[in-house]
């Protein structure tokens, strides 16, 4: 019969318990002393686990420190250290990094690249990108602004055009799945098509692009799209609607006659997703983010819900939408303390995020009118179980909100105390409150209990953990 294992605590010369060790002995014969097994260390773990540990480190500096701690870690950490690289605008820095990657064979380890175009940008640089970084799955392209002259409009326009040499290079990246185009207004190659040239691409972010005639021709099978709401953006969404799982829409703040143009685009999207008009189309959309869209608008000196936006959101009831993020809006108060009455009903939404635009350190958006707004909005999502509120209560201290007794909380912040009651009447199981500016790394989490919510302070500072 195999001898069982016993867990014992080793002690030092003074009898203090030092560490846990494993010993094996014959329990049936007390005269035999147990035979100790070798003590296990971090390096006794298999390579797969050690590599996973390195991958969970957030900063490259920490990975480099781990790499230098033991010879075995050198090769295990190497792929993670060079997994992400950034090519700067300066030509010499750009050239030195590329030469280093090529001469040391590290280029094959790169999976994500943040690529700033140099000035000048040549076909040879694009060729180096396409022939050496063939394993990258994520690529971010940005124009060069290093020597930008504000008085030279032609030069500025040239910098904001995606060069044809780069679109040619993109065709030679077979592993590319995610592409981000920042600050580009147009694509030089007017015949370039994602569906034809990049058939395996699944994610695209192009929030400033306005001229690219053939980019979305033939319906690319994108699963994620980040785009600005204008005529070009609408055409992109229409082309990809049957494969999109995630959509991030930015309000177009630069176009003249923004309100009219926005209403036109919202109406076009409403018609696209309307389940009554498209009974035979199943749209797989699961996540929607609206950036800087106001839920309320002023009409005839009265503040009411934005009708076109509400109609667009209502049309999404035929999709699989489960996550909705509304970010960067400012209006949360209707006229004469009226209930906004959004006229919206989306029972599929489970997670809801409402982020107000930051309005100053002395501003607190939480008051009776905003609570009325919030209560009315939550009724539109009766099955939501998760809620995130950002920048709603910047002037309040999250430590106090987490630690005070319920009665003391009513004295410290009556308005926060007032907020808890309408939240309790919902199906919400978890609520996270944060301030992206003033609360720094801290946030307040409310967890559902039988008679209300337990409050917990979340923080990256170890000495700040508070529960009540």
Mean pLDDT: 83
Sequence of strands across the biggest β-sheet: 4-5-6-8-10-11-12-13-16-17-18-19-20-21-22
- Rg measurement, Å: 28 Å
Helix content: 25-40%
Query: What composes the largest sheet?
Result: 15 strands, mixed
Number of helical regions = 15
Category by helix and strand content = alpha/beta
Low-pLDDT residue spans? 4-23, 149-158, 462-466
Specify the overall morphology: globular
What proportion of the residues form beta strands (DSSP E)?
A: 15-25%
Calculate the terminal CA-CA distance, rounded to whole Å.
Answer: 51 Å
Number of strands: 22
Secondary-structure map:
Elements: E1 5-11, E2 17-24, E3 35-36, H1 47-56, H2 60-67, H3 71-81, E4 84-87, H4 91-103, E5 112-116, H5 123-132, E6 138-142, H6 153-159, E7 161-162, H7 164-170, E8 178-181, E9 186-187, H8 194-197, E10 203-206, E11 224-229, H9 231-240, E12 246-251, H10 258-273, E13 287-291, E14 296-299, E15 302-305, H11 307-314, E16 323-329, E17 351-356, H12 368-378, E18 386-390, H13 398-403, H14 406-412, H15 414-424, E19 430-434, E20 443-449, E21 452-458, E22 466-467
Parallel strand pairs: 4-5, 5-6, 6-8, 7-9, 8-10, 10-11, 11-12, 12-13, 13-16, 16-17, 17-18, 18-19
Antiparallel strand pairs: 1-2, 2-3, 14-15, 19-20, 20-21, 21-22
Helix pairs in contact: 1-3, 2-3, 5-7, 9-10, 10-11, 14-15
Walkthrough of the structure:
This protein has 468 residues and is of the alpha/beta class. Among the domains are: 45-81; 84-222, no CATH class. The protein has 15 helices and 22 strands. It has helices at residues 47-56, 60-67, 71-81, 91-103, 123-132, 153-159, 164-170, 194-197, 231-240, 258-273, 307-314, 368-378, 398-403, 406-412, 414-424; strands at residues 5-11, 17-24, 35-36, 84-87, 112-116, 138-142, 161-162, 178-181, 186-187, 203-206, 224-229, 246-251, 287-291, 296-299, 302-305, 323-329, 351-356, 386-390, 430-434, 443-449, 452-458, 466-467. The strands form four sheets. Strands 4-5-6-8-10-11-12-13-16-17-18-19-20-21-22 form a 15-stranded mixed β-sheet. The chain is globular, with a radius of gyration of 28 Å.
